[in-house]
Design goal:
The structure holds two protein chains of two kinds.
Chain A (H helix, E strand, L loop, with lengths): L3 H15 L6 H6 L20 E5 H7 L4 H6 L4 E6 L2 E6 L7 E5 L2 E2 L18 E8 L13 E7 L7 E9 L4 E10 L3 E12 L15 E13 L5 E20 L2 E23 L2 E20 L5 E23 L2 E16 L6 E17 L2 E10 L7 E13 L2 E12 L3 H5 L1 E3 L6 E3 L4 H10 L3 E4 L12 E12 L5 E24 L4 E27 L3 E16 H8 L4 E3 L5 E3 L14 E11 L4 E10 L2 E2 L15 E2 L2 E12 L2 E8 L17 E9 L1
Parallel strand pairs in A: 4-7, 22-26
Antiparallel strand pairs in A: 1-6, 2-3, 4-5, 6-7, 8-9, 8-36, 9-10, 10-11, 11-12, 12-13, 13-14, 14-15, 15-16, 16-17, 17-18, 18-19, 19-20, 20-24, 21-22, 23-25, 24-25, 25-26, 26-27, 27-30, 28-29, 30-31, 31-34, 32-33, 34-35, 35-36
Chain B lengths: L11 H8 L21 E7 L5 E2 L5 E2 L5 E4 L4 E4 L16 E4 L2 E4 L10 E6 L26 E4 L4 E4 L3 E6 L5 E10 L13 E11 L11
The chains are: A mainly beta, B mainly beta.
């Protein structure tokens, strides 16, 4: 099975050869392929922003269960385990800077900024789109890294059902059932999934669990109804729960941890077409995320954590798509969000609201050129209003050659945690206060006799500013012959006022009090290259498609570079001498691999009903932790080793059934010190049946 | 006279008890026609108010007292757990440690003429004490003074390339480099099992009253 980019490109190549490229934007709105990158649905090859798509066929061929599985195998994407779960690293940015959407609406519920991609099942999706760069005006200015949009399947016009079961060698199992029914004017589709595991340990002698025991349930409902030819109504609803039980070691003591999570969302939508040139879209969205965590020493009284957290999110939005002429496409939209968080780590329920408006203008002056200019205006309740303009251009100088260039700005207002957190770590005793709470928190500690001394004059504590970024992109895509696509994209992001913690005081127990500050200036830059093509197509041998991706990534903290240049940054070498760190020693931001690569092979044999999908993911060493006191990454022992993961899945079609066997992490790579959540080699068998 | 060895045994508290009275003061003898060469001395595991227990919540509690050190004696003159605190307000000490706090005997910190400042530069490269710029205490906070705190690993580590230059209670000079904040100077540090608030440091003391940290020719 060809990979999706290739498929789209092949279709494009075929149509481009059959007929001249349309110079009208009308065609683009009729053949919808991609919806995330720009406001209007566009054919993939017409999108001026780097975008990739993973289709449901590809999801099925890989046997991917969770969004984390799927994205980890995409070129240039790294899924890194962290405090808040499996987070996505995109273009050198942490998980907090990528927006994750389901059907265009944001998934809420992040822990320490990370959205856990293990939460989201991909069994029922139609496709997953990944947009790179802060170039999507519609979805918010805060997606500095990019946008991942998980698009669920539209209810079809027939009645049918599908059931799927999977068992894994390390105790995990997955069961899902989906059913749909409908006609031309209406349709309903329901999806239910249970995913669970008894947990898995890499070091059973310690009593800890690399993969905690868990049981996830998710149910989704999607309905459509068209009262007339011009009007379409939609409803998306989703509810998911998770119960998780784990164990971890802290200071030699074993702690048991239990977490219960519930999240739901509901989204009614309306689309109305006034004419072929003018249509309206409107929608409401509500979501809630609730999490309870309890962690306590197994043999003792110490309670490490006992917290409840709730995040509510509501949004109303409407927009108009207007084609004033065949060469211009305009989208004008606006709306407002309202959010509320509450829980044990907040002194009181906190709210924020943000009205916004955006405009996007696509201009196709000739068939050689597409120009997209867009701007977004956000007026958050507690921060200065901000306009974020973006521009992208797609040039087609020759058949089979496309050049994309873009420049855009993004900004991200401080989140609830950075502003309002009130947290004391029970086992260790340190405390973290959000920027709005720190004065009151310190005063209360002081009054209670719990404060030893200030490290920063409290008078100098100032309000947080929004983080802001500028992104540049330049890419070339070429099809030297039909069936082979080569793509190279270069990117550069400059980010200012990154928010991080810093100690502000010392408690009488010797532990520190932290708060949030606008600290760092960073850049992330690199080159992504991708090649995809069909190397074999025959009736006897089947179809063989290959895809290869590579990313070179260079990141740095500009303050560290300045300190190096000024000769202020030292490290202590093995003999105990202090030596100056040079630019050549500096490895950039922690957690980033300079090199990463993916290789994909898909073989489809229609006659035998066999589909084989093999994927390899490799990343070079990455900075893990400071070991020599200067907080900069500059020594070999501060890195975690690179690693490769190889996955193979074979699917056999048997009438109404599909049988699947596969192996995850074929080479059995494990690294308890740096990658504790990787359980090693996992074998699985699955079966699906269509009714 | 001070011992020419470059490594001090552990448990300087005990040494204070054993050797404190025997140490003699070079300050009153005037310029020595044939001075001892300057040596790098090392102090291991100086206890800077370490935890004495845990409270009902399991959090560390300590006596909240300094340990005082004299360069001329080369020893602790008053430990955090000595009950008689009389020497704390004398000029018998030059520098004192409590948690991450480091103070000098002068100004608000003590009755002496002392001071301390953080000089950016490798220990070996600091060949002369600055003429001015001395403070009563090393600035506190991560990255401001002698240490970095890494919130990712919960670890306090000395900043490489930071040399503390101390003016002693009687106006002489020493340079000091902190090597570890954990008992036994472990590497790597496990902040959950290694005991913190134990200083291992090395220093060079210039007894002749000059600001130079190199031997006179």
């Amino acid at each position: 099975m060809p990979r999706p980019l290739l498929l789209a490109a092949l279709l494009a190549a075929a149509s481009a050869q059959a007929q001249p490229l349309p110079d009208s934007l009308l065609a683009g709105t009729l053949d919808a392929v991609v919806v995330t990158a720009t406001r209007a649905a566009r054919a993939l090859e017409d999108v001026p922003v780097p975008t990739t798509v993973v289709t449901r066929e590809e999801v099925a061929a890989r046997g991917a269960l969770r969004l984390s599985d799927l994205l980890a195998e995409q070129a240039g994407l790294v899924v890194a385990p962290g405090l808040g779960g499996a987070g996505l690293q995109l273009r050198g940015f942490d998980s907090a800077y990528t927006l994750v959407l389901i059907d265009g609406e944001p998934v809420v519920g992040r822990t320490a900024g990370t959205l856990d991609l293990d939460r989201l099942a991909v069994t029922g999706v139609e496709r997953v789109e990944v947009v790179r760069g802060p170039l999507s005006a519609r979805y918010g200015a805060d997606a500095l890294a990019g946008v991942v949009n998980l698009i669920t399947r539209r209810p079809g016009e027939r009645t049918r059902a599908r059931g799927e079961v999977r068992l894994e060698s390390q105790g995990a199992s997955d069961v899902s059932v989906e059913a749909e029914t409908g006609g031309e004017r209406w349709g309903v589709r329901a999806f239910v999934n249970r995913y669970g595991s008894d947990g898995h340990s890499l070091q059973p002698e310690l009593g800890t669990l690399a993969v905690p025991a868990f049981s996830d349930y998710a149910a989704e409902l999607r309905a459509r109804y068209a009262p007339s030819d011009a009007t379409r109504l939609g409803l998306q609803a989703r509810v998911a729960t998770q119960e998780q039980e784990g164990a971890f070691l802290l200071g030699g003591a074993l702690y048991d941890e239990r977490a219960d999570r519930t999240d739901w969302s509901l989204s009614p939508t309306l689309r109305h077409r006034f004419s072929r040139r003018l249509s309206l879209e409107a929608g409401l969205y509500g979501a809630r995320f609730h999490n309870d965590v309890f962690a306590a020493e197994r043999e003792g009284d110490a309670v490490f954590e006992e917290t409840a957290f709730t995040h509510d999110y509501a949004k109303a939005e409407a927009g108009l798509t207007w084609l004033p002429s065949a060469h211009h496409l305009l989208y004008l939209g606006g709306g407002a969000t309202a959010e509320r968080v509450g829980g044990d780590r907040y002194a009181a329920a906190r709210t924020a609201s943000q009205p916004y408006a955006y405009a996007e203008h696509t201009w196709r002056p000739s068939e050689l050129l597409d120009l997209v200019l867009s701007a977004r205006y956000d007026a958050p309740s507690d921060y200065a209003a901000r306009l974020t303009p973006k521009a992208a251009v797609l040039v087609r100088p020759l058949g089979g050659l496309r050049v994309r260039a873009s420049v855009g700005s993004g900004y991200r207002a401080p989140d609830f945690r950075q502003r309002y957190l009130v947290f004391t770590n029970g086992a260790v005793g340190y405390a973290v206060f959000g920027a709005e709470e720190v004065r009151a928190g310190l005063a209360a500690l002081d009054a209670a006799g719990g404060l030893d001394r200030y490290l920063i004059d409290p008078a100098l504590l100032t309000a947080l500013r929004a983080e802001s970024s500028t992104a540049y992109g330049l890419g070339v895509e070429v099809e030297p012959w039909a069936g082979l696509v080569l793509r190279v994209d270069a990117f550069h992001n400059e980010v200012r006022d990154l928010i991080d913690t810093q100690p502000v005081a010392v408690k009488t127990n010797g532990q520190q009090v932290f708060s949030y500050f606008n600290l760092a200036r960073i850049y992330t830059r690199g080159v992504e290259a991708e090649a995809a093509g069909e190397v074999l197509r025959s009736d006897a041998l089947g179809t063989l498609a290959l895809g290869a991706g590579y990313q070179y990534l260079d990141t740095a903290d500009r303050d560290v570079l300045d300190a190096i240049d000024a000769g202020l940054l030292f490290r202590r070498d093995a003999s105990g001498r202090d030596v100056r760190v040079t630019r050549a020693d500096y490895g950039g931001l922690l957690g980033r691999s300079r090199h990463s690569a993916t290789l994909r092979l898909t073989h489809v044999h229609e006659g035998l009903g066999l589909t084989t999908s093999a994927r390899a993911v490799w990343r070079s060493r990455y900075g893990f932790a400071d070991r020599n006191g200067n907080l900069a990454l500059d020594e070999d022992r501060e890195y975690a080793p690179g690693y490769a993961l190889v996955h193979v899945t074979v699917t056999k079609a048997l009438g109404h059934a599909d049988l699947q066997v596969g192996v995850r992490n074929l080479l059995g790579h494990t690294d308890p010190d740096h990658l504790p959540s990787e359980p090693g080699r996992v074998l699985f068998v699955g079966a699906a049946y269509r009714f | 006279m001070r011992s020419p060895t470059t490594t001090r045994p552990a448990f300087p508290v005990l040494l204070v008890l054993l050797l404190g009275l025997a140490a003699c003061d070079t300050a009153e003898t005037g310029p020595d026609p044939d001075p001892d060469p300057l040596t790098v001395e090392r102090v291991e595991d100086l206890p800077a108010d370490p935890a004495t227990g845990r409270d009902s919540l399991g959090q560390a509690i300590s006596l909240n007292r300094f340990t005082f050190f004299s360069f001329a004696d080369g020893e602790v003159v008053l430990a955090y757990d000595d009950e008689d605190r009389a020497d704390s307000s004398s000029t018998a000490w030059d520098v004192a440690f409590r948690g991450t706090e480091v103070i000098a005997n002068g100004g608000d910190s003590g009755p002496g003429e002392g001071g301390v400042q953080v000089v950016t530069g490798a220990f070996d490269e600091v060949t002369e004490a600055p003429a001015d710029g001395y403070l009563d205490a090393v600035p506190g906070g991560s990255g401001n003074g002698w240490y970095n705190y890494d919130p990712a690993t919960f670890t306090v580590t000395p900043i490489p390339g930071r040399t503390l230059v101390v003016r002693t209670a009687d106006g002489r000079y020493a340079k000091l480099r902190i090597l570890s904040y954990y008992e036994g100077a472990p590497d790597p540090i496990d902040p959950f099992t290694d005991s913190e608030r134990y200083y291992t440091f090395e220093y060079v003391y210039q007894p002749d009253g000059s600001r130079s940290f190199v031997d006179a020719e």
